[in-house]
């Protein structure tokens, strides 16, 4: 029952509307405390003052505490101001009222706060379940299938799409779960939360083929939630005889409130974790192709910056980069915090960790692909994406920039970026034939 509650979807319009209607009914009840001009004047003042306090709270959260770690939706201001206005009205109902009105007023405060939280969460759309909102994973444990040491039947020659045929009895859907026991952190000591693993149907059959691998990182604040990339690959495999990459969604934060910026720093040895813990574990425990061209490092927002940095610094491991609305460089939203808190005031070290500078130092790249996606309604991140894409192209990477029309810096950008970004990489990963060259005019 507890898991069912945590797995309840909380971003659907019907869910949010229900809470809004309940809150509206409670506001009407609280307004009807008395039928006098004096009371309605007091109620109006309470609502107005509450809305001002709510606006001030958001301003502090955004401009002082940087609690959102990225662009702030207009809905945040509206929901917060509305909630504080209603809460202030409830507080004013505690005086000169009977016990049952006091009880309803106290309960209303919790309802108003929950309604605002659900409304704000729905505006972003990243935490799609109650468990995700509370940073509680409900994913079932999954045990990876390691590569066979002595395959019964050697794989045919040629690209995978050319010879693969789905065998009888292949599952219709892939599986997503939390890596049983987690990915060990012996080299780094980084306290990563358990990674999630997606295995497409082609990975679940006897004598399964080696598949491409995607190591993906979500944004900050966030969790290693594999549901978005699993949805993308489920849609793809349904049209490609069960073929899709294996996806490993890892934690580059250790905590939603911490941004270690994907380097080794006092906030955690993230690069050591990824390169010396995750990568060797994936090679030993996942039935994936070995060549760098079949390995993609990807991420969304904060994770997109991490992916660009890792792919640029380690082309011998990751032949492909997929940056979905990625930040331009570590700490782009607060450079002073990054410089002091992560790089110890060393400006040279900070500059060297910026993806554009990494690419300039490591180029020219012999065989690296970089795909950058950005929402058309995301001006805050667009310029940085364009600069990183230009740096990648200058450094010799095969570079693609994709604009997700109508998307901001929320779930629509993540969903569209994964869909279109992976579509650009699928031929490179030999999951489908490359597009035919345009006929000569």
Q: What's this, in brief?
A:
This protein has helices at 2-6, 13-31, 37-63, 74-92, 99-124, 130-133, 160-163, 227-238, 270-285, 302-313, 335-342, 347-352, 355-362, 379-394, 411-425; strands at 141-142, 175-179, 196-199, 213-217, 246-250, 264-265, 268-269, 295-300, 320-324, 369-375, 398-404.
Indicate the CATH class of the largest domain: Alpha Beta
Number of helices: 15
User: Outline, from the CA principal axes?
Assistant: globular
Tell me the major beta sheet. Answer: 9 strands, mixed
Encode the helix/strand succession as letters.
HHHHHHEHEEEHEEEHEHEHHHEHEH
Tell me the helix content: 40-55%
Radius of gyration: 25 Å
What is the fourth-level CATH superfamily of the largest domain? Alpha/Beta hydrolase fold, catalytic domain
The CATH topology assignment of the largest domain is Rossmann fold
Cα end-to-end separation: 64 Å
What is the strand tally?
11
What do you see in this structure?
By secondary structure, the protein is of the alpha/beta class. It has two domains: 2-124, no CATH class; 140-146 and 168-425, Rossmann fold, CATH 3.40.50. The protein contains 15 helices and eleven strands. It has helices at 2-6, 13-31, 37-63, 74-92, 99-124, 130-133, 160-163, 227-238, 270-285, 302-313, 335-342, 347-352, 355-362, 379-394, 411-425; strands at residues 141-142, 175-179, 196-199, 213-217, 246-250, 264-265, 268-269, 295-300, 320-324, 369-375, 398-404. Strands 1-2-3-5-4-8-9-10-11 form a nine-stranded mixed beta sheet, sandwiched between helices. Strand 8 (295-300), helix 10 (302-313) and strand 9 form a beta-alpha-beta unit. Helix 2 runs antiparallel to helix 5 and helix 4 (74-92) runs antiparallel to helix 5. It starts with a helix and ends in a 16-residue tail after the last helix. The model is unreliable at 437-441 (pLDDT under 50). InterPro entries: AB_hydrolase_fold (IPR029058), Esterase-like (IPR000801), Mycobacterial_A85_antigen (IPR050583). GO terms for molecular function: hydrolase activity. The chain crosses the membrane at residues 14-32, 39-64, 76-96, 103-124.
């Amino acid at each position: 029952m507890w898991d069912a509650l945590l797995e309840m979807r909380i971003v659907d319009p019907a869910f949010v509307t229900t809470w809004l209607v309940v809150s509206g009914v409670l506001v009407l009840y609280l307004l009807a405390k008395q039928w006098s001009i004096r009371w309605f004047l007091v109620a109006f003042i309470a609502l107005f003052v509450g809305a001002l306090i709510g606006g001030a709270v958001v301003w502090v959260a955004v401009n002082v505490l940087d609690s959102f770690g990225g662009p702030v939706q207009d809905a945040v201001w509206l929901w917060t101001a509305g909630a504080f206005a209603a809460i202030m009205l409830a507080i004013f109902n505690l005086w000169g009222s009977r016990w049952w009105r006091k009880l309803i007023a106290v309960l209303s405060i919790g309802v108003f706060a929950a309604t605002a939280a659900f409304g704000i969460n729905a505006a972003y759309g990243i935490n799609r379940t109650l468990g995700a909102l509370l940073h509680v994973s409900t994913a079932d444990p999954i045990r990876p299938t390691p590569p066979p040491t002595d395959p019964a039947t050697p794989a045919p020659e040629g690209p995978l799409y050319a010879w693969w045929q789905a065998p009888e009895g292949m599952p219709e859907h892939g599986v997503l779960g939390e890596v049983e026991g987690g990915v060990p952190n012996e080299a780094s000591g980084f306290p990563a939360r358990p990674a999630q693993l997606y295995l497409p149907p082609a990975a679940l059959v006897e004598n399964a083929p080696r598949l491409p691998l995607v190591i993906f990182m979500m944004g900050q604040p966030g969790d290693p939630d594999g549901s978005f990339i699993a949805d993308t690959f489920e849609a793809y495999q349904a049209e490609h005889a069960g073929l899709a990459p294996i996806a490993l969604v890892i934690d580059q934060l250790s905590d939603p409130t911490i941004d270690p910026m994907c380097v080794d720093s006092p906030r955690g040895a993230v690069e050591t974790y990824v390169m010396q813990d995750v990568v060797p574990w994936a090679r030993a425990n996942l039935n994936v192709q070995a060549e760098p061209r079949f390995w993609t490092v990807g991420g969304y927002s904060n994770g997109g910056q991490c992916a660009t940095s890792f792919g640029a610094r380690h082309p011998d491991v990751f032949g492909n980069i997929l940056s979905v609305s990625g930040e331009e460089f570590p700490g782009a939203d607060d450079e002073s915090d990054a410089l002091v808190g992560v790089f110890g005031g060393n400006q040279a070290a900070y500059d060297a960790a910026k993806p554009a500078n990494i690419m300039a130092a490591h180029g020219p790249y012999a065989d690296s692909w970089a795909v950058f996606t950005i929402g058309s309604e995301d001006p805050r991140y667009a310029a940085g994406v364009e600069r990183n894409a230009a740096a990648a192209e200058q450094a010799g990477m095969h570079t693609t920039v994709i604009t997700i029309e109508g998307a901001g810096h929320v779930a629509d950008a993540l969903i569209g970026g994964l869909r279109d970004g992976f579509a650009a990489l699928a031929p490179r990963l030999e999951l489908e034939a490359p597009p035919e060259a345009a006929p000569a005019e």
